[in-house]
Every structure is written in C-alpha cells, then in structure tokens.
Amino acid sequence: ISGHRFDHLLENMGNLRKLQGPILLHVLTSKGKGYRPAEQDPITFHGTGPFDVASGTQLKTEAPAPSYTKVFASALLKLAREDERIVAITAGMPSGTGLDAFSREFPDRFFDVGIAEQHAITFAAGMATGGMNPVTAIYSTFLQRGYDQMLLDVCYQKLPVVFVIDRAGIVGEDGATHNGLFDLSFLRCIPHLVIMAPRDENELQHMLKSALHYECPVAIRYPRGSGLGVKLDEELRIIELGKAEVMRDGRGLALLPIGASVYPAMEAADRLAREGIDACVVNCRFVKPLDTDLVCGLARSHKHIITIEENVLAGGFGSAVLEALGEQGINDIAVRRLGINDRFVEHGSQAIIRTKYRLDADSIAAAAREMVGVRQGIIAGKG
After folding, report:
1. Which residue among 70, 85, 145, 356 is the active-site one?
2. Which one of 5, 11, 31, 370 is the catalytic residue?
3. Does 5 qualify as catalytic in the annotation?
4. Is 117 a catalytic residue?
5. pLDDT for 309-368, tens place per residue?
6. Measured between alpha carbons, how far is 264 from 364 in angstroms, rounded to an integer?
7. Exposed e or buried b for every residue in 334-370, given b needs 16+ CB within 10 A?
8. Would you say residue 383 has pLDDT above 60?
9. Are 321 and 335 spatial neighbours (Cβ–Cβ below 8 Å)?
10. What angle do CA 245, 246, 247 make, to 5 degrees?
11. CB-based contact 313:340 (threshold 8 Å)
12. How many alpha carbons fall within 13 Å on the CB side of residue 8?
C-alpha cells in the first residue's frame, strides 16, 4: 500500500490487528515525497545540510580543499587507466564513496551491489581469485556488516582486495551511528590484513597505489570532509610496507599519531617547542604491521610516549604500541593513549567533537605538558 496515504495506512494497520499469524505489510514510499527539490534530487537530499526551502538550493560554503573522497576517486581513475585489472565495488554508495566518476569512465569495471556490504566483500573476493584487483569502497560504520566476509572470504585466503574505508574516525554531523570509531579495533586482530591511515590527501594517493602493489588484503582508512590543501604529487609512489615517517625530531617526549591526528600533533609540537618542550612527532602510517623497530627505538631513547588516534582506545592503535613495548620487555617508559573511551560519540561538528574528546592540538599539547610535569610553561614544583 502507499505509505503516503495515511488514511489507507492507518486503516490497514487497524485491520491487521485483527488477523492471526505472520503478516507482511509492504509499504511503498517515494523519497522526498511532497517536496519537489527532494523528489527531483533524492541523492543530495538524503543527508543534507542547510538549504533554501523555496528553491531547494544548497547553502554550502566553498570547500578550502578537495575532499579525501574526491582525491581517492581521482587517484583510482589514474591507476585504473594504467591497469585494466582494477575494478571498483560499492554497496549502494556510488556518489558517497566517489565511485560515480569511475562508473562513468569504466562502466564495465564498476559494480554497485546495492545495500549489501556482505555480498560486496565476497564478490570482491571472487574477483580477486579471477585475477582482478578489486577496490571496495565502504564507509567505516557500514564495514562492520561484512566482518565475517572480510575474515574468511578475503583475509583467510590472503586475497588482494583493497578496502577503502571512508568516513573513518570522527564523522560528526552524520550522527552518532555513523562515526567510524571502531574499525582499527575490529580489523587489527585479523591475520594477513595490512591497515594504513594517511596523514593527508596526498599520502592517501600513495597509499592507494601501494595497496594495489602489496598483493595482499589491505585496508586504508581516512576521514570525512575536506583534505588539508596540501600539494598533490603527479607521480604516485609505493610506500615501504610497515614503515613509519619521523616528521619532527625531539628529546624526551614522542608523539605517535595515526592518520588524521598527525597534523594536530605537529601543531601541538610547535606550541610545545615555544615553551621549551622538544617533542618528536612520527607519522605512524601503519597500524598493522606496526613499525616496531622505530616505536621501540623511540621508547628506549625517550621518557614519555603519547599515542593519538580517532578510534576507541580498546584494541586500537595505542593498544598495538603497548603490545609491541610489552613484547620487547620495555616497561620503564610512561605511555599515555589519546582516543575515544568506552562510549558512543554523539552528533556534533568534527571540530567540536575533537575538542570535547581531547583530540585537537590544544588537548594534545595539554596532555604532553601534564606528562612531562609542566603546566602553562612552568616546571611543576618550581613555579
């Protein structure tokens, strides 16, 4: 029955109350019904920001830089032009994942399986066994639906499927259910899976090329929204598997951020330097395999380590660092983990949420001061 005819809907629901046994009521609706702009453009109005009600015009400010999604889509097109084995898969989100551009240029190599993440992953596994290089783009919050397929259909068989995890970390205004704060934890325990997170949109390009080169299951997670506006390299290069990057040398204190937390950590280190606190900053890049040599080397030469991640703390990147230190018998160093405690994060802008959960530059600097015994530039006990 029509879901827009409340008189019919309510009457039928009243009648159904009198029936016995299993009942199926099929209600048909049209997206955006009653508002012409939404009827004409249901994709844009699926999740919209402010707009002019009379015209339906979106009230958007010009983005300062291309989104991570757009940079991924552009890089994938570049790589696909060079390698006809690359195919793209989405689970009902061609525009949200940026694969609509791929579908227009390579319609025979693009597959939208609908809202069926489990099938998308098994489908990718099948294509990998046939010699293709499948790239499966799924939001972090939706990837959870295909966990068994990732575990057994892809990773158990060591198949070269690339999982591009959009909307990872703090997503913000998509609501509490759409934050991507669990993927590092639920993926890190899967054997054979490489997990990467780029510090910016340029590194995302290189990670995509690298993932297709490694010939094993790979997950790349990146945040929602605009990139940082960094220069995009024309030539894409392969990043050495499992190797982190020292962004800034320091003494005594080491900041180990992953992904979107790298630049806030760099900003925090700049502030700390002006106060006489010399912090090392590492773009850790790989959650798995972790650059154990570098991490443990820093632990032996520094007194304090702070890990920073947009993920729940339980089982996340910070846990990986602690495990590495424990396995090496390094127990004479202070380690603090910054991330999300045991909770679901509410709706709010990314900036507000990052500040609330102490993942912005100010909070990272404050945590560092506390660790080294300095408050507001005064050495504790001497001020």
Report:
1. 145
2. 31
3. no
4. yes
5. 999 999 999 999 999 999 999 999 999 999 999 999 999 999 999 999 999 999 999 999
6. 8
7. ebebbbbeeeebeebebeebbeebbbbbebbbbbbbe
8. no
9. yes
10. 105
11. yes
12. 9
